[in-house]
Specification:
The chain has 455 residues and is an alpha/beta fold. It folds into three domains: 47 residues; 109 residues, no CATH class; 285 residues, Glycoside hydrolase/deacetylase (TIM Barrel), CATH 3.20.20. Helix content is 35%, strand content 23%. It contains ten helices and 23 strands. Strands 2, 3, 8, 9, 21 and 22 form a six-stranded mixed beta sheet that branches. Strands 10, 11, 14, 19, 20 and 23 form a six-stranded parallel beta sheet that branches. A five-stranded antiparallel beta sheet has the order 1-4-5-7-6. Helix 1 packs across helix 7 and helix 9 runs parallel beside helix 10. The chain starts with a helix and ends in an 8-residue tail after the last strand.
Length: 455
């Protein structure tokens, strides 16, 4: 091949690459413009505004609830109500009934008496301690149980809640503790959603109690964690649509009770899509954004905003986002940047770094991207691979982060009740999360907030 042909070939290649680059930048600018226009239009759209108004009217109206409370099979209270999606009970009557049924062993199980020192009714509209219901003081059932140092089990099918003394089984308590100089690592509990009515649910009443056990376990080891929550569960094939802003019952109250519990144990909410599905797919299985989604840009913009509104009206953090299955087109990315401050996103064509990065949104805000390079544990048999990926990230100096479906360990979280009203939780130490936590702590890391990487 002579020099002239070589030069011609190089010129053609350069021209082609230049043309491709120009086309790529034109495409990205078009996508960016589409995204900005769509999210701006959605903010003032009738669909989004009407959804928010209807949700507010539904959630912040006091409704009589059918839920009955029991302790040691004694009925404590049969008057209850729903507000903000949560269960409320008459304060004085419920508290005095519980105390009256307890014996001298109560304090041995950490029961706390006379610590309810609050002022006024309803300081917080969304999730207040107290409500004034026809002149009577009602208290958040979760805050009553938490304040007294008790625990409970919901029975949604029978509209019943049983209250128990609480005792954690520490016979297999691990010896590894958080180092004073521990480096940050990140953990996200994935696909938390109210799927209790589907044919193969993860989060029945029993599953939700075991999820609370996971949160308690992590807190007991000094670990903080993120919760990827799908607030609206949709399963078209089975005719299920659980929208927490349109439906409140014993099961949905159990779900929010669990989220409140996990939040108090160190959990931080990440909004994981609006429904995490489209078409005939069910939540947590289907895509919702990206090239695999059958939704147009305008509908995706509405879903981004309705997801944020749902979290906000239920009283949870509404500034962290994770695309379902990490699927996102350039216009989806732009819309998410306009809506959220933090985006959990995997390494892909748009974001090549395995470290936390920041970008500027169109309004000048700084948007933080958080990758979890160790990816996720699909089942217990892949645990060794997960530990190797953690090692790899540590050696490279990348973010040490992973996400985990808590139900993988549910079979080995043992929960039982004693005849005298004690509820025992025992997390088998050789299961996935304890092994991963041991690994993280032994290597001088600790699960915490991503901000620890920024300072």
């Amino acid at each position: 091949m002579n020099k002239t042909v070589i030069k011609s070939t190089i010129a053609v290649v350069i021209a082609a690459l230049t043309a491709m680059t120009v086309i790529y930048f034109i495409y990205m600018n078009i996508e960016r413009h589409r995204g900005l226009e769509a999210i701006k239009a959605a903010e003032g759209s009738a669909a989004v505004l009407e959804k928010k108004k209807a949700a507010e009217e539904y959630l912040f109206r006091i409704r009589k609830a059918p839920v009955k409370i029991y302790f040691l099979d004694n009925e404590v209270q049969n008057e209850s109500c729903f507000y903000g999606g949560r269960l409320y009970v008459p304060f004085e009557e419920t508290y005095e009934s519980l105390v009256g049924l307890m014996d001298e062993r109560a304090e041995d199980f950490g029961v706390i008496f006379d610590n309810f020192i609050f002022s006024g009714y309803g300081e917080d509209k969304i999730n207040p301690y107290f409500l004034n219901v026809d002149g009577r003081c009602y208290i958040s059932f979760y805050k009553l149980i938490k304040g007294m140092g008790l625990c409970c089990l919901f029975d949604s099918e029978n509209d019943r809640v049983d209250v128990f003394y609480r005792k954690t089984d520490t016979s297999d308590a691990p010896k590894i503790v958080v180092s004073d100089n521990a480096k940050p690592a990140l953990l996200r509990l994935e696909d938390i959603t109210p799927d209790g009515y589907c044919s193969k649910p993860r989060y029945t009443d029993e599953g939700l109690e075991k999820l609370r056990a996971v949160g308690e376990y992590l807190e007991s080891r000094g670990q903080r964690f993120y919760l990827a929550v799908i607030f609206r569960y949709v399963n078209p094939e089975q005719g299920i649509d659980v929208d927490l802003t349109e439906e409140t019952n014993t099961y949905t109250a159990d779900f929010l009770y669990t989220l409140d519990y996990l939040k108090d144990k160190g959990g931080m909410v990440v909004i994981h899509g609006y429904t995490h599905q489209y078409g005939d797919y069910f939540s947590a299985d289907g895509f919702e954004f990206g090239c695999f989604s059958g939704l147009d840009t305008e509908e995706k913009a509405r879903r981004l905003l309705m997801a944020r509104t749902t979290a906000e009206l239920l009283g949870y953090d509404c500034f962290r986002w994770e695309f379902p299955h990490y699927g996102a087109s350039p216009s989806d990315i732009v819309m998410a940047e306009e809506t959220y401050d933090v985006i959990f996103q995997s390494k892909n064509k748009l974001f090549r770094s395995d470290c936390i990065g920041q970008k500027k949104a169109s309004d000048g805000r700084s948007v933080t991207y958080v990758p979890l390079p160790a990816y996720y544990l699909n089942n217990i048999y892949e645990l060794d691979d997960m530990l190797k990926r953690i090692d790899k990230g540590e050696k490279k100096g990348n973010v040490v982060g992973l996400f985990f479906h808590p139900s993988i360990d549910f079979e080995d979280i043992i929960i039982e009740s004693t005849p005298w009203g004690v509820r025992n939780w025992h997390y088998t130490p050789y299961k996935a999360l304890p092994v991963i936590t041991d690994k993280i702590l032994a290597d001088g890391y600790t699960f915490t907030e991503f901000e620890e990487y920024l300072y």
